[in-house]
Design brief:
Length: 285
């Protein structure tokens, strides 16, 4: 009988230890971040700027969760494909999401983000082409249309919903005086883009500017952004509008590619959104 009681006491004590360990391990929260090189670093820097983690000294655009040196709130960083994060929001406590993917999932980046980058973020979204094509007349016409006051006004009117802020310092009427637009009448220019806000801007504003000069804009939408640079590199599509310069530089380095940026159009401040938690209060208790 004494032996049986001893065994039971051991089991109870062991169970108590397991429960105690689980409770201790559960003090942190799960934060999803993009898993591509530049956007993960960008997300981690956003968390660092808001006192959630601290990265090692000198962390740059290639920083990963392995570079975290202080984690006062015991958060777990989950690296997930950027386009998939909105659909997984319900499964994590918080998520850092690119504004275009947030808006595409029905979130309002200007209102729903708990924290986000400032408009001064260096990650402006660019128009990119294959090196050597920068001065083609149809490319210059596309660039001029994207740098127009009409596009700037579109961002001013829809920026809160899209989570985008125009970055063109001196918008124009949308036309380049050095171009012979008569010679471009009947020409088609193709652009690969993600749906929001890139394809929206192209279809709702830029297409009309070019059409007034007889130029057809063919916008090819991609939901998988990893496919967009390759179709421009191969020459299948003339240009793309979806990424920031650090992402382009990383693509070029990893793929021996030669895409170049010819204009910075807008910035999409990266934001952290509530998942299982409704506010930052739970995280910082």
């Amino acid at each position: 009988m004494k032996k049986l009681i001893s065994i039971l006491l051991v089991l109870v004590f062991a169970s108590a230890l397991v429960v105690g360990c689980t409770a201790t391990e559960k003090t942190g929260f799960v934060i999803a971040v993009p898993n591509d090189t530049t956007n993960e670093a960008r997300a981690l820097k956003l968390l660092e700027a808001n006192g959630i983690i601290k990265l090692k000294e000198g962390s740059d655009e290639t920083a990963t969760k392995l570079d975290i040196v202080e984690n006062p709130f015991n958060v777990t960083i989950e690296e997930i494909d950027a386009a998939q994060i909105p659909s997984m929001l319900k499964d994590v406590d918080y998520a850092v999401i690119n504004s275009n993917f947030a808006a595409g999932a029905g979130l309002n980046p200007g209102k729903d983000a708990l924290i986000r980058e400032g408009a001064e973020s260096p990650y402006a979204n660019i128009l990119a082409v294959k090196a050597g094509n920068e001065n083609e007349p149809k490319i210059l016409a596309l660039k001029a249309a994207l740098e127009s006051q009409a596009v700037a006004d579109y961002f001013l009117a829809n920026g809160s919903e899209l989570g985008a802020v125009g970055t063109v310092a001196n918008p124009t009427d949308g036309y380049d005086p050095s171009i012979d637009y008569d010679a471009l009448n009947g020409v088609t220019v193709t652009v690969a883009a993600t749906p929001t806000p890139h394809a929206l801007v192209l279809n709702e504003v830029v297409k009309g500017i070019l059409a007034a000069k007889g130029i057809t804009l063919d916008v090819v939408e991609f939901t998988d952004y990893t496919l967009i640079n390759p179709v421009v590199q191969s020459g299948e599509i003339d240009a793309n509008y979806f990424q920031h310069a650090p992402y382009l530089n990383d693509f070029n380095a990893k793929n021996e590619a030669d895409l170049v940026s010819i204009a910075a159009i807008h910035v999409e401040p990266l934001g952290m959104y509530a998942g299982k938690q409704s506010s930052l209060d739970a995280l910082k208790k």
